Structures are given as structure tokens and as C-alpha cells.
User: Fold these one by one.
Assistant:
Number 1:
Amino acid sequence: MVKPLIIAIDGYSACGKSTLAKQIAKKLGYVFIDSGAMYRAATLYFLEHQVNIKNDADVQNALHEINITFQNIDGLNTTFLNGKNVEEEIRSLIVSEFVSEVSSISAVRRKMVALQRDMVGKYGIVMDGRDIGTVVFPNADIKFFVNADPMVRAQRRYHEILSKNQKADLHEIISNLAHRDKIDSWFKNNRH
Ligand code: DC
């Protein structure tokens, strides 16, 4: 029997990592896991429950309450937070604005990385996200790093939001991406 592979796709946000990962997973019959969706779902929980991210105990308590799963609905990978379909809500601008801050909290990262490692079973998986090949699965069988022009990235996110019948402002998206790049790069360079 052929050993199922772990395929890691890293890169900045809105570069097409998920699109690439989904296509590879479909082609190989592998499970696709969108790790960014997991950080977004945690952020949605923090926003909905007004968790004070400066308070370690509040963050820990919130993390105990968070359960994130994925289901394939009509061929689409769909994110569930505590049993509720949150696929649309986690793509909203408000979540995008806070997700970098929430994902820079060490306790949040530890929980997400543990969940991600637990998702590896007997099936091959394709996981995308900025730390998958370096932190989550440093021994992944195949690793990609994806990048794209900032304007192309902003347009991708713009059309993604519009296609979900939500309001989108290209300038807001450009500044949101630049802001997140800054936080995400700082965090990448200072990760322990
Ligand atoms: O890929 P995305 O835009 O859906 O990711 C949302 C945020 O989640 C991104 O700004 C940083 C964070 N993230 C992370 O820190 N580590 C990952 N493996 C995936 C995403």
C-alpha cells in the first residue's frame, strides 16, 4: 500500500494557497485542511464572547470552549465552530481585522497546532497556512511556499468577499493585508 503523504502549503494570505491545496487534495483524494479557517474560527469566538486577549486566564478559558471541525458540504470544505457552520462569518472583514492579533497569541497557536497535528490520521492530507511546513509538520513529505503580487492578492480577497454577497472595499482590503503581513512577518521572525 502506498503511504499517504502530508503535503504542506505555506505562504502569505490571499495568495491562492487554499485554492492550490483544494485542487491537489481533490486530485489525490486527500483531506484538505484550511488552517487559516481555524484561526479565523477562534477569532470569531473571541469576538462573539468579547474575550479580553490581554488576559491570559480569559484566553485559556475561551480556548477550552473552542471546538473546530470541518465537513464537506456539497463538495465544499466547510468550517464548524462548536457545531455551527461559520464558513461565511469567518471570512468577514471584522474577523480579518482581528485574526492576526488573535493568531499571534502563543496559547492560541499551541491549541491550533495541536488540533492540526491531531487531524492527521490514516488518510493523506493537504494543509495550508503560513507555518505548516515549518512548525506544524516540519517533516511533511512535500512542501510548497506560495507568494503573489500585493495587488493581485487584494483583488483575490475582494472578489472572494463579493462572491459571498458581502460588502467589500478594495482600499480597506489592501491596508488590511499590509497590516496583517506586518504582524504575521513579525510573528514569524519572533516565533518560539
Ligand atoms: O490564510 P488566511 O487569510 O485565511 O489566514 C487568516 C489568518 O490566520 C492569517 O492572518 C494568519 C493566521 N494563520 C496563522 O497564523 N497560521 C496559519 N497556519 C494559518 C493562518
Number 2:
Amino acid sequence: MSTKPFNAFEMAQTQFDKMAELLGLDQATRDLLRQPMREYHFSLPVRMDDGSVKVFRGFRVQHNDARGPGKGGIRFHPQETIDTVRALSMWMTWKCAVVNLPLGGSKGGVICEPHSLSQREQEGLCRAWVRQIARDIGPVRDVPAPDVMTSGQHMLWMLDEFEHIHGGKYPGVITGKPVGMGGSLGRTEATGYGVVFTIREALKELNIKAQDTTACVQGFGNVAQYAIELYQQIGGKVICVSCWDQEASQANCFRKADGVSLEELQKITDRFGGINKQKAADLGYEVLPGDAWIEQDVDILIPSALENSITGDNVGRISKRVKLISEGANGPTTPEADHVLHERGIFVVPDFLANAGGVTCSYLEQVQSNMNYFWEKDEVLGKLDVMMTTAFIGVSDMAKKRKLYMRDAAYVISIARVAQACRDRGWV
Ligand code: GLU
């Protein structure tokens, strides 16, 4: 078992190198794609409520834009690192390509703990971030979006700052905006719902009815909550969710054998997104240690928190009953653990396919923003379903045709598309 600290970028490069070999990519294409094309590091001075100035560190990494403007979210996280942002930007390139979106891959981040900042301070941070990057993002260059601990409100502050700087209205510069302010109906639900579209399709492949399945969800943020909602609507039963407890700096799991109630848990969630342990216990939930989600006797695991969740250390605790894992988070499974899942024959819907619903809906938002005409929610979600299902079928057909693991099949499709775009443009 490895004791080396987890590095998401090394993981993304390891995955890429393996696939580059399988695809027989030439050296120049490998050199181009295993590194980001551009990256920006900046200092963000923010006037705090007490009058002092605090300087934060922020990043934007543009991995590849051969297929279109860069696309990808901005994370606010105390443990953010440049290597994590690099990895996430590379995964965005593959994510956009697997759904065949005319977009490249980027990612941004700020090292901060947003829960300890007031709304005004968060606004200052968003505006400071845009002031540093305003000339290098834009509707035809690079288009940010929300991610971990950033929301529609953050996107609107960023848009407003961008428009002040450039002196015009540019709603296509950012996605995940609030509905009514250039946002798309369905965008909030999109990532979690997309995860469940892939679960629905994978269950068809496995010849299992959703009504006969149980699942365990790691995380209780935006992706997890909408994944639970739709999975329950298609008949599945979630018996355990895990959730980060901000005060205790640890995760907890909440289990109910006859199925958790999303509404019940949402009502006892604090402003940091943590589920209240005592209130949950009063409602009949068993409160278990944070990593208990991985060893539950269920059919489906939905890791929807952060990277590095299924590792060499805990993969052995996954129950024999688990048949399907759909990765709502980015990079939840380390290569070491992935090898074990592959050997065990678990059907894995890889992160950059499973959670592509968010960016796919962002693309639909951009189209609507640019037309200045907005669709009904059903129309957005219908298009999202078609695009996600088409991507899933493409990957699963490739997996069958070339006898590949689903993650490898998704990589083969994405990397081949991006490499082709680089060649077509005469870059390599
Ligand atoms: N942050 C989301 C992701 O990781 C969405 C990105 C976007 O909408 O651009 O896919």
C-alpha cells in the first residue's frame, strides 16, 4: 500500500500515459496533452470586514483548447493546490470531449475557507479573482463555472466584475449563473441528474431493475443531493449518505436500512452543509464513522465528494454485493484502487463521463445566453438526457468492441478526439 501523499495531477498524468500508450500517440501529442497549455497564478488582496487586507492565492489552468474555448469550474477550498487544479483542468478536457462538446478544458481555484468569510468578503474575493484573469477568460477564450463551494451568486459577482472591466454585457463568459440572470433552468440539478442517467443506462447493461437496487452516496453537496433525488425517483433506495462535519473536521455517515429521506436530511443540514448528528439520531438514523459508506452492503456506490476517496487502503472494504460505481466527484478513485475495481469486474462509470452533466448543461446555458432566449426546464433536461445517454452508449460500445474497462474506453474516445483536433489544427 502506498504511503506517498496523494497528488491528483500525478494521477491524471498516470491515467493519460497509460492511454497514450494504448492509442500509440506520437511523442509531440503526448508532450502537448500531458501538461496544461497555460496556467496563471495570482495574489488576490481582499479588504476584510475588520478593515485589514488579506491576500489569498488563486489559479486558473487552461489545459487544452483545441476543440473550443476552455471550460471548467472554480473551487474555493482550504486545501486547494496547483496540482489539483492542473489535474481537474485535464479532466475537464476529457469530460467535454467525451460528451462531444465543442469546448476545451480549464479549471480554477482559490485557497480559502469560504465558510469563514462573510458574504461581502466572498464577493471581494470573486471580484479580485476576475480582476486578475479578465483578459484571459471570455466567451470565446475560457468560460468558468461553479464547483466545490462556489455557487450561482459567486458566478454573478464574477460576471459583473468582468462586464465592468470590459464595458459590455457578456453573459456567455461564465455559466452556472442564477436563473433570471442568464442562468439555465436545470443547471443546479444537472450534475447529480447526469450521474443518475448513467446509472440508469449502466443498470440496463447489467440487466438489473433500478427498483431492485440500493445505493450508498458519499457526500451531501449539490451533486449528491440531486443524484439522490433522481435515483429515488427511478425507484432506487439510498440507505446511507456521508457528510462533512465542519465543526468536528471529520465526515459522518447516516444510515437508515429502509431508505434515507432527502427532505428530512436537508431540513437538518446546517449552513456549512453538515447534517446534524443529534437530530439525525432522533429521526432514527444510525450515525457511523465517515468512511463507513464504502463498506455498506449495497448494489451501487456513488462517490460524490472529493478526489482520493476510494484508495488502495479502503478498496478492499467494498462489499461483494457492489456491482456498479458511478463517480459523481472528480478523481474519487486512485489508480491503485481502480485496478482492484477492474479486477473485481465492478462496472465503473468514470468521473469524467458520470459527472459530465454539469458541464453539458453549462454548454446549453452558454447557447441560451448567447441567443438571449431561454428554454423550459423540461427542454433543457431532455437535451441533457439525450447528450449524456449518447455519450454513455458511445463509451460502453467502445468498451465492448475493444474489450476495455469503462474508464479506459472513455479515455480512448476523449483523447482520440482531442488529439485529432490538435492534428487538424496543425499543432502536432
Ligand atoms: N465544475 C463542474 C465540473 O467539474 C462543471 C464545469 C462547468 O460547468 O464548466 O464538471
